[in-house]
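Q&A log
Question type: sequence-to-structure
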Amino acid sequence: MRRLLILAATMAAAPLHGQGPADLIVVNARIYTTDATRPVVQALAVRGGRIVFAGNRAGVEALAGPETERLDLGGRTVIPGMVDAHVHLLGLGQALRIVDLTGTTSYDEVVARVAARAKSAKPGEWIRGRGWDQNDWAVTEFPAHEALSGAVPDNPVYLTRVDGHAALVNANAMAAARLTAESQDPDGGRIIRDAAGKPTGVLIDNAMGLVGRVIAPDSKDEMKAATLAAIAEANRWGLTGVHDAGVSEEVIALFEELARAGQYNLRNYVMVRANEASLDRLMAAGPRTALHDGRIWVRAIKISADGALGSRGAALLEDYSDEAGNRGLVTADSGYMRRVAAKALTSGFQLNIHAIGDRANRTVLDIYADALKEVPTADHRFRIEHAQILNYPDIPRFAALGVIPSMQGSHQTSDMYWVPNRIGWNRSQGTYAWRSLLNTGVVIPNGSDTPVESPNPLISFHAFVTRQDANGYPAGGWFPAEKTSRQEALLSMTLWPAYAAFMEDVSGSLSPGKYADFVVLDQDIMTVAEERILDTQVEMTVLGGRQVYRRGDGRR
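Response status: OK
Response body:
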């Protein structure tokens, strides 16, 4: 039976009386609560940052006092605050400040954008960019550095591919890193080379660090500014929460500093990225939840088992269809992952492993199975991040093991144009298999992987419902049997991410007792024509009963 018990929020819809008037009442709205006891209501009452009543207008008026703020929404739509279950928050903030290469349609355009930035850079200053994707160009082979090196000779350049699993660097950057024909491929990485064995400038997965290690890290103030910019951007798109996939201890400390200062307008379920020694220290301290007024959770660990499909780093069971002899990259030792899994179960931490290729997914499922035999645990909620390419026999193993597939709808609509070339038509049928997975009894927390994709969560909502791009391509949807319902798509951005983060008692639905996190939309995404879903605008984002974004107030 599909785990739609998660649909039924744990809190009843009865009001919570006895503590004085409401701080805020919301009236004259169509409110989708994702609470099965009262799925659609007319009004809400908020006290102390929590929902105290969800029901009719008469009910909320009974809780109003002379100081109560009234929000009349004129019939607009309200949904619970949306949660992106897989982001890179600091990466989003940094992407807002570097050269934006998303949407480039040729290598020439990439070079032109970087050259334009170089005009205002000091000689020797690093120029960084992100977002190029050779699959969107007429020539879909990886680029070589010569054109970039010729256009920008006086500055080292480091350009991250859209998926974050490859980089393009120029000659100046290779010189700074002493990257030559004699340089060896690191474990889990690949230096793309020309016929003579010289680096072309493209580095895959762990090879990116060969140049990345010589780039001076951002200062603390720069990281703070990037974080604040990312939070504001998230709020603009109706996000009240994120699951941050792979964060260092240093950055977590920075997040906490901002949260203590009241500057963190987001609930962040952090997945810690660390080495084995620091993980031991983390686990000894134990999980930390609902820190700083419910802004920070630290109870999950992130590991990457393979690379990405677009850069041919996803670990496959068979060769890539467009590159014989290549089955992708394994980026983490299976013994290490198995040890971390067992330790996580012992210490009460969740383990979330990135796996895109079918070989990587099978390996991770095997690791989880072994760890659960060693440390039997009833409610571990281990996750696989992405779960993009699955071999059919592995699909029911998620439910059998209690593993959550954390997936990103927008990846399907971005990748569908070239996936069959990369892995062939037969394997393509096991990609982004939302319906097949849901039918086994799992839930799917939805996300964007931003800055890989746009932070707009409605793109992934639309993808789940239609399996089409913004232009309605292809007619009927790409492998349409894998579509979800709109209710499932809404749950995938609200209650299911809450469950996937052990937060369903306080978040994910507009139920009494839970955080008053909600979003006001200018049209009803549950009933509007499919082709109009992406026209929807966020009018307001509310976190803990307080507006953190309002359309037209001058913010981004």
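Response note: The chain has three domains: 1-81+509-556, 89-212, 221-508.
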